[in-house]
Amino acid sequence: MCGIVGYIGTQQAYPIILKGLKRLEYRGYDSAGIAIYNGNDLGICKTKGKVADLQKKCEANIELEGSIGIGHTRWATHGEPNDVNSHPHYSNSGNLAIIHNGIIENYDSLKKELSNRGYTFQSDTDTEVLVNLIEDIKTKENVKLGKAVQIALNQTVGAYAIAVFDKTKPNEIVVARLGSPLAIGVGDNEYYIASDASPFIEYTKNAIYLEDGEMAVVRLGKEIKVRKIHDDSLVDPYVQELQLNLDQIEKAGFDHFMLKEIYEQPSAIKDTYRGRMLPDQGLIRMAGIDDNLERFLNAKRIVVVACGTSWHAGLVSEYIFEDLARIPVEVEYASEFRYRNPVINKDDIVIAISQSGETADTMAAIKLAKENGAFVFGVCNVVGSSISRETDAGAYTHAGPEIGVASTKAFTTQITVLSLIALKLGKAKGTISNSDFHMYLNELELIPYKIEKALESNEHIIKVAEVYKDAKNCLYLGRGFNFPVALEGALKLKEISYIHAEGYPAAEMKHGPIALIDEQMPVVVIATKKGHYEKVVSNIQEIKSRKGKIIAIVTEGDTAVREMADHMIEVPDTIEAFTPLLTTIPLQLLSYHIAVMLDKNVDQPRNLAKSVTVE
Q: Does the domain spanning 251-453 belong to CATH 3.40.50.10490?
């Protein structure tokens, strides 16, 4: 959530920061702001709304010239979205400016202390409290900005990624992080600051990712000094070369990032299994598993922790692990995991799944699992992310940047990685035969091509979307491996079209949801021929007898469901365990087209953020 951008160098800062804010729009936000030092003073411009609104306001009202500045997109936590609560925030003297991603939990007590000392506050934010605390320490202790920031952060409780600027010393920006991501792009006599690398990828390939509890003074003409916040010890910063390319974060001719990412799934899955799966040799090579194989084989159970779409991928993995590797699996919402005093044992494997690798709740679950001695394995997409650094081992999905807030290719690549792990463990344990193992590998290799086939239904799905775009509610039903896909399909529709939708196991329909069915209720039923086909057909008959409208996702060539369904969308045939990789495709497209027809902001749905970095 939120986006941070900063620049210090020799170029004009405003266009760099503005472009960077546009690159970070996918993170979710409701207001934006920018501050540029022009050599004498800080010019500030901020507004409720989108970066486009900010750009109009900035260009109409103030002149923003200068080679140092900071910018921010805010997702409201403390205080409603408005111009006053937007970042950057200033200290009472007007000398210090700050941008902040995160939550200062003890801001209220700090605010009372500062108010007693004569400080006043214009906004309702915790961030304005922090910048005035930094100023108070800087003045009272007569210390430099970096030291004041360090002392202040040792007095705060919460999470943050911050960038602070002092106009009385306009050659440096102080940054720090705890629980929220922060990257520093290293250029030629210039530095870039951002929540991730996308704002500066076109300027430099070199980046430093601050670790939790670290801060840095980014000074023009000087090497970056990184320190531990709690004890002031120096850290040798690691400059890594970015693998991200500019064309990966552009729309490439698609109307929306979400549609582009739906169509990228065949290549994304190939990238996920490339170099890991060798069907000709009957091998799966995954360093994170190979190096810890005994730990996995001796595990009493696997606990999956995740949120949102990643949680749905975890549910699919429960079916796959238990079917192929015969290991008990529990799937937990990371957001609830640490609040119910979970039983965690030293012989447990905890698999943490997150597209961004920065999800705050998942990070907290990882910390709890490690404190209790469990082995933690991460599955994430973003190289160098917090989860990839905090876990004992892991595997990247290699899906490439996912900009659309509604996750698509992350879901299918997560399932691909988890399937590879389950297959590798099943082979090692002897719970699947050699012939079945080879069959699974060969079929997984074909999945990208079958997804391409499924995508050919796009024009048909547009026609179906036209029929149901004005629906107020929708049910999604699936059984077995496809029950989590029903949940995911319903989530997609809710996220981007704002139509109320619920996913259920098909057999649960009779235990309540059937009361909702009438001629106005669309019901999406996943009815592929693998699995519990006959039982799902019976469920369809029950819906039809109550005049429900049926959209059926079926295997190519199906005839039985055709006679009952109002609309059919076909997907290629595959092994039951891999059906979620195909059945999710039409559900993604259906949600996308309905949202577009309703003129919704598909890539940036209201109230949502791509990466939930606050609790």
A: yes
